Batch of 2 targets.
Target 1
Amino acid sequence: MRFSRTVLAAVVGMLVFASNAAADHDTSAPIVSYTLTGTPGTNGWFRSNVTIAWQVTEPEGLTSTSGCEIAQLVTSEGTTTNTCEATSHGGTVSSTATLKIDRTAPTVSAGSPARGPDANGWYNHPVAFAFSGTDATSGIASCSSPTYGGGDGASVAVSATCADVAGNTSAAALATLKYDATAPAVTAAPDQAPAGAWYRRPLTVGFAGTDATSGIASCTAPVRYAGPDGDAAVVKGSCADAAGNAAEAALTFKYDATAPKLGKPRVEAGDKLVRITWPGSADIASVQLLRKPGLRGAKSSVVYTGKGTSFVDRAVRDGLRYRYELVVADAAGNRSGRVVTAGPRPPLYLPAAGQAVRAPPTLAWKAVAGARFYNVQLHRNGVKVLSAWPRKATLRLRATWSYAGKKQRLVPGRYRWYVWPAEGTLERPRFGRRLGSSFFVVRGAA
C-alpha cells in the first residue's frame, strides 16, 4: 500500500502533537534506588567485592540516565562513591551510593611478654603477651592479648590474632617462650642404713632432684646429723630447677646414740645363792646377765635375760668366786655394762665347813640386821665346851678358856659350832632363829 505525501505529513504531525501533549502533562521526577550485594563486615564495611543494582522508575518515561547500570561491580578497596542520575520531563534526580570495602586481613607483628623471665630465661608463672597489627584500609580494631600459664616446655608457643574495623581476622602470629611451673622431684637419702629401726651413730643425708623440663640447678649440700636423740628426728633439704621452682624433701628417722644409764648394781651373797639387783630406768629395754664360770662346767653362761631389776642365782657353789657382767640395752641397741663379783657362802662361813686348822681360828658368820649380839656355842665331840656372847659377827677362839667352871683347851678333835642372833639384853635375851651350824677340825697342837 502506498501513502501519498499528504497522508504521511498528516501522520507525523499527529505524532508530534501527541508527544508534545504528553510532555505538557509529565510533572513527577524519577525515583532512583539501589541494592548492594556482597559480604557484609562490621562498622558498615564490606569484606568482598560489591555489586550495585540501580533501580530507576518513572511512570511517565525517562529521557536520560547516567551511571545507572543494572549490575555495577565495585572492586576497589577503601571508600568509594557511585552516582546514578536519571532525568525525565519531571526533572533530574541523582543518588549516590557510598561503599566501604576491605577484603584484606590485617597483619600481626610478633608479640612481646608483659614482663621479663623469672629465672635464667624461664617463666615459672603465668605471663601476659601483647600483640599489635597493621591494616592499610579499615585500620586495626583489636588484637588478642593472651596469657600463658602452661604446660611446661622449652619452646612453647603463644598465638594471637588481630581484627580490622571491617571484621577481617588475621592469621595467627606466634611468640615462643621457655615455661616451667613444675617444681622438681627431690629425694633425701642417708649414707648408711640404720641398725634395725634406729641410727646409733652420726649420719649424712644427701639431697638429689630430677626435673623434666628446665633441669636441676642446685640442691642443698649434704647435712650431717649427730643429735639430738629422738624417735622422730628430721633432716630437711631442697632442690631448685633452672626456672626457679624449688621443692623440699625431709628424711624422718629414729636416732639414739646415747647408751642407757646404769647405776651400780648391788650384790648379796648367801648360802648357795647370789642376789644381784640394779637400778631400772625408762631407757632400758633389755637386760642380760653373763656369769663366769658358767653353768655345768661352761667357761661362761648367760644366766638372765629380760627387763627386770634383780636376779637370784641359785646355781652356784659356796666357796667359789663368780664374776657377773650386767649389760643393759636401749631400744636402739646402745649398751652399758657393769661388772660385779660375788662368792656365795653359808651363814657360818669361817672357817669353811670341814676345814682343818692348827691354830685357834676366827669364827665368822653372816650379820643379821637388828641383832644386838649373838650367842655362839662350841661343841667338841658332842659336848658343849663354850658359850660366848659377841656383839659383832665374829669370834676369835683362844687356845684356852673357861666354861662352866672348868678350864678348856683347843685340843685336836672335831668341833661343831652354832650361832643365834639375839635382841634385848644379856640378862633377858630374845633369840631369833638359829643361823645354822658348821664344823672344823683341829689337828696337831693348838
Target 2
Amino acid sequence: MNVAVYGASGHTARFVIAELLRRGHTPIAIGRDRSKTAAALALQERRVELRTAGLDSPESLDLAFSGTEAVIHCAGPFLDTARPVIEAALRARIHYFDLTAEQGSALDTFAKFDERARERGVFVVPATGFYGGLADLMATRACDGWSAVDRIDVAVALDSWFPTRGTRRTGERNTTPRLALIEGTLQKMRPAGSSSWSFSEPFGTQDVVELPFTETILIPRHIRVRDVCNYLNQAPLRDLRNPETPEPVAADERGRSNQRFVVDAVARNGDARRRVTVAGRDIYAVTAPIVVEALDRACNGASGKGGAFGLGQLVDASDFLETLAHRGEIDAVTAT
C-alpha cells in the first residue's frame, strides 16, 4: 500500500515511516521543506520517495497525495494543519489518520468532516496515537458488555518527558481551555488541586493533576458515559516546563528513548469497577505501531463505510491491544 506521511521530517513521523517499511508498505514522505525532509530521511535504512507540498497550496497537496491510498498526518500543531490535509485527503478519496493530542483539532475534525468522509467512503480518524487512541481502546475494552457507564478515569504516568520541538510548538499554540466530560457534556475543566493515583510498579503512588487530552473527545462519541476525567503525574510536567530539557535520545536499535509509561483506564458502572492497564516505552515511538495498525485494519475490513471515527469506535479494541502486546509494541495488557 502506498501511504503518504505528511510532516515526514518530524521525530514521530520517522518512527511511522520505519513502521510502514517493516510492514511492507510504501511510504511517500511529504514535507514543506525538501532539504529538511531529505536530511531526516537519510536516517532511514531504505530509500523513501520524497515529495514536497505546502499547506497553503491545495494543488501541491493534490500532487503529493496522487497514487496513495491513505495519509498519516504527523505535522502539528494540528489546530493549524489538520484542515488542509483532510481537505486534500477527501479530494483524493484516501483515508486520513492523524496524531493530535489537541482537543480543539479533534472536535473540529468530527464536526466538519464526518458527513463528507461518509459521502466519499473514506475514514477520517484523528488522535490515533499514544494520546487519544490508546486510552480510547483501553476504555472501550473496560466497558465491554456495558450499555452505559457512570465514569471513566484515564491516568497516565511517565517517568520523564523529553519533548520534541513539535511538542513544544503545540504547547505554545494550544492555549484554548481544556475540556472534561461532566454530567454528559463537554465543559471547561473545573480547577482542581493535585491528588494521587496508585499505578502499577515501578511507578507506585504518584501525585497527579487533572489534564485532559483527546481521549476525552473520542470516548463519549461511542460510549455512553456521564463523566470522563484524565490525570497525568507531575514529574513529566516539570520536564515539559523546563526549557532546558533536551529532546529524546535514541537508546536502542529502533531509535526509542528510555522513557517508560503506564496508562490506566478505569470504568465504573454502579458498584462495578473494571481497570485496564498498559505499560510500555517511549510515547512517541509507540504511536507508530498504533497508527499503522489502525491503517491496516481500516483498509482491510473495518466496520463502516466511511466517516470520522475515534479509534475505539472503528476497531475491535481488545484484539487491537492484544495484537500490540503480542508484537512487543506494548507490555502485556492487564484487566482487573
